[in-house]
Amino acid sequence: MTEKAVLVWFRQDLRLTDNPALDAAARTGAPVIPVYVLDDGDAGGWSIGGASRWWLHQSLKALDQSLRGRGSRLVLRAGPAGRVIADLLKETGADAVFWNRLYEPFAICRDTDLKSDLKEAGVEVKSFPGNLAFEPWTIRTGENGPYRVFSPFMKACLRNGAPARPFAAPDVLKAPEDWPASDDLDGWTLEPVKPDWAGGLREHWTPGEAGARQRFDAFLDGALDSYAKSRDQMAGETTSRLSAHLHFGEIGIRSIWQALDHREAEGARSVGKFRAELIWREFAHHLLFHYPTLPERNWRQSFDAFPWVDDPDALQAWQRGQTGYPLVDAGMRELWVSGYMHNRVRMVVASFLIKHLAIHWRHGADWFWDTLVDADLANNAASWQWVAGSGADAAPYFRIFNPVRQGQQFDSDGAYVRRWLPVLKELPDKYLHAPWTAPEAVLLDAGVRLGENYPKPIVDHAAARARALEGYAEVKNA
Ligand SMILES: Cc1cc2nc3c(=O)[nH]c(=O)nc-3n(C[C@H](O)[C@H](O)[C@H](O)COP(=O)(O)OP(=O)(O)OC[C@H]3O[C@@H](n4cnc5c(N)ncnc54)[C@H](O)[C@@H]3O)c2cc1C
After folding, report:
1. Which residue numbers are catalytic?
2. 131 touches ligand 1 (CB under 6 Å)
3. Is the CB of 379 under 6 A from ligand 1?
4. Ranges of the chain with pLDDT below 50
5. Residue 352 near residue 325 (C-beta atoms within 8 A)
6. What pLDDT shows up at residue 474?
């Protein structure tokens, strides 16, 4: 009799190491059929954005190669995930399906329904904790509710102790007698073709498990040591740049945690600060799990009263890096070219959109969703609401980042702005973050013609600040 296989449904866990669902499937001793389902229709309005699609293509390719190195392969199918999985079970005669859990509201609904349907049909269904260090429902306040403030949440996580130890990758995976048919990855056209705008992404990133490991190792041996001191510096590699690898699950959080514990024991500096940032990721997922409308609605309802402005021209200027504020424009160019933006610059550009332009944070979150390689529903929504002041434990609304001062403080030698806005590279440091303050002769000397090859500011900082504070008064009185 043919041995029944186990399906392993890969989702945001595109790795072999520290993959609990894969590990459990391999341990059954049965043949394992790894599958990835492209399900654009079932994403609750959050189908994967352009830059993430490019990343996904590379990551699936890398995963298939790693699986082939272990006598296996990745089966690709497109369509509504529930139906595809049910069809594959029938087609292959497999009687079990394992996956690692997701926390997006639409994924939870889909997976819960599928689990109950399949169980009813006699299929063994197992889900595992693979993507977070702490399952969102396990961290509870004294009143047995979810946390709304970060610091006590972090303390509760740390009290919980280290997450479970990571699993090694299985050495071999038993193949089924017959492989089910697979779609052709290129046929999914996840990569842009006409035009091919992904050159910058290719230049900056190596998606896949090996690329993730390499980046993490480089960070451990490099920027980690000065992370606490330097992470706000915008130029250079002052942070780990692991966000997209983490989003796609190319590196497991438990592997990271364990490596950090080792480094801490060896006396490495900054481990606590870095771990705190990883816990912000946990917090964002905790919030999304407990408040599933986070990506769509103000977490603080009083913000519904804010008088947002509908200004498509200003939104476009922001998206294209044409606001006339060099730090904002450099950030938006970095995003467009590389699919990434430094965290502090993200805060500045988000604050600019929301507070200087009075444009709803949802428009910014949508743009980030499409252009970031690390677009992540929980992190993106929680961060945008944090900047807006409408979120949990958010920045106070009246804290309005001044893009000029932020630039002078965290890009004091101008290396970041000069890299992403070469048109300004000849401007002296003194004027770089506020070119409109430079004397005409200085501009001329630097080849900068305001309003021609670089825009004049589209809003005046002081006036925009005053308008934002007036809007906030309406929120307070709501
Ligand atoms: C407006 C805005 C939107 C954002 N959108 C996203 C997004 O879609 N996806 C995303 O992963 N991050 C998002 N962030 C958070 C943060 O900017 C990025 O995680 C970070 O810049 C990624 O760079 P890194 O990997 O070098 O971070 P590091 O500083 O090396 O941090 C390590 C990891 O911790 C996590 N992390 C760090 N900061 C945060 C944070 N504030 N919230 C949640 N997790 C965090 C990330 O997984 C990150 O990879 C956003 C921030 C802002 C202000």
Report:
1. 277, 280, 308, 343, 361, 384
2. no
3. yes
4. none
5. yes
6. 84
CB distance 376 to ligand 1 below 6 Å: yes
Domain ranges of the chain: 6-130, 132-166+210-290, 301-477
Q: Given the DSSP bridges, would you call strands 96-100 and 75-78 parallel, antiparallel or unpaired?
A: unpaired
Cα(213)–Cα(256) distance, rounded to whole angstroms?
10
Q: What is the pLDDT of residue 43?
A: 73
Contact partners, residue 301, CB within 8 Å, separation at least 6 = none
User: If you take atom 45 of ligand 1, which residue's CA is the nearest one?
Assistant: 281
Q: Whose CA is nearest to atom 16 of ligand 1?
A: 343
- Measured between alpha carbons, how far is 58 from 50 in angstroms, rounded to an integer? 13
Whether 353 is in the pocket of ligand 1, judged by its Cβ within 6 Å, is no
- For residue 377, the ligand 1 atom closest to its alpha carbon is 8
268-323 pLDDT, tens digit per residue, is 899 999 999 999 999 999 999 999 999 999 999 999 999 999 999 999 999 999 99
Q: Which fold has domain 132-166+210-290?
A: 1.25.40
Query: What tens digit of pLDDT does each residue of 322-381 get?
Result: 999 999 999 999 999 999 999 999 999 999 999 999 999 999 999 999 999 999 999 999
Atom 20 in ligand 1: residue holding the nearest Cα: 343
Looking at the structure, give the CATH architecture of the domain made up of residues 6-130: 3-Layer(aba) Sandwich (3.40)
**CATH topology identical between 6-130 and 301-477:** no
The CATH number fitting domain 301-477, selected from 1.10.579.10, 1.10.3720.10, 3.40.50.720, 3.40.50.11010: 1.10.579.10
Q: Which residues contact 45 (CB under 8 A, 6 or more apart)?
A: none
Give Cα separations from 241 to 197, 205, 342 (angstroms): 21, 10, 9
The one-letter code for the residue type at 45 is G
Q: Is the CB of 283 under 6 A from ligand 1?
A: no
pTM score: 0.97
Residue identifier of the C-alpha nearest atom 22 of ligand 1: 243
